[in-house]
Amino acid sequence: MDADLARTVESMRLLIRALDRGKASRRLAEAVGQPLDKPSLHILTYLFEAGEPRRIGAIAEGMQVEGPHVTRNVAALERRGLVSRVQDPADGRAWLIALTPEGYEVTRRCREVTSGWFGEALANWSEEDRAQLSELLARFSADMADTIRKLTD
C-alpha cells in the first residue's frame, strides 16, 4: 500500500472511531434531550433523509442490516412517540414507518448538533480548504459507497 493510501485509510479509521464512540452518542443524546442509542439514531436519520415514510424492509436495506434488527428498534421508537406506522397508500395491507413531528424535530436537532461539531473542527480552516475538503470528501464518499455496494450486491 502506498503512503498516501495508508494515510487516507488511517485517517478514515480515526474519524470513524471518533464519530462512533459511545461518549459522542451520549453527548448527542444529552444535547437533544432524548436517550438515543446508535441504531435508533440511524433509523431516525434514514427516515429524515428519505423525506417520506418507508417500509421496514427498505429501512433495513438502506441501513444494510437485517429486518428484525430494524423491527425491534422501530417498536421502541414508536413507544417513545418518535415514529408511527402509517398505512401504505399503494398497498393497504402494508405499513410504512414515518417520523412523527417530535421524531422529525429530534432528528433535526441531532443534525444541528453534529453540524456544529464539524463546524467547530473546521473553524480555523480557510474557505478554500473547506471547499476542497467538501469536494474531495463528496467524491470519495460516492466512490466508496459504490465500491461497497458492488461487494455486497
Structure description:
The protein folds into two domains: 3-121, Orthogonal Bundle (Arc Repressor Mutant, subunit A), CATH 1.10.10.10; 125-153. It has a two-stranded antiparallel sheet with strand order 1-2. It contains seven helices and two strands, in the order αααααββαα. The model has no long low-confidence stretch (mean pLDDT 91). A hairpin with a 2-residue loop joins β1 (83-88) and β2 (91-99). By secondary structure, the chain is mostly helical. The longest helix is centred in the C-terminal third of the chain and has 26 residues, at 127-152.
Describe the secondary-structure layout.
Blueprint: H1 3-20, H2 22-32, H3 38-50, H4 56-63, H5 67-79, E1 83-88, E2 91-99, H6 101-121, H7 127-152
Antiparallel strand pairs: 1-2
Binned strand content: 5-15%
Order of the strands making up the biggest sheet: 1-2
Counting helices, strands and paired strands, the structural category is mainly alpha
State the CATH topology of the largest domain: Arc Repressor Mutant, subunit A
Sketch the major β-sheet: 2 strands, antiparallel
Q: What value does the average pLDDT take? A: 91
Net shape: globular
Domain tally: 2
Name the CATH architecture of the largest domain: Orthogonal Bundle
Alpha-carbon distance between the two ends:
26 Å
The number of distinct helices, counting runs of at least 4 residues, comes to: 7
Instruction: Give the helix proportion (percent range).
Output: over 70%
Order of helices and strands: HHHHHEEHH
CATH class of the largest domain: Mainly Alpha
How many β-strand stretches? 2
Extract low-pLDDT stretches: none
- Radius of gyration, CA atoms, in whole angstroms: 18 Å
- Classified in CATH, the superfamily of the largest domain is Winged helix-like DNA-binding domain superfamily/Winged helix DNA-binding domain
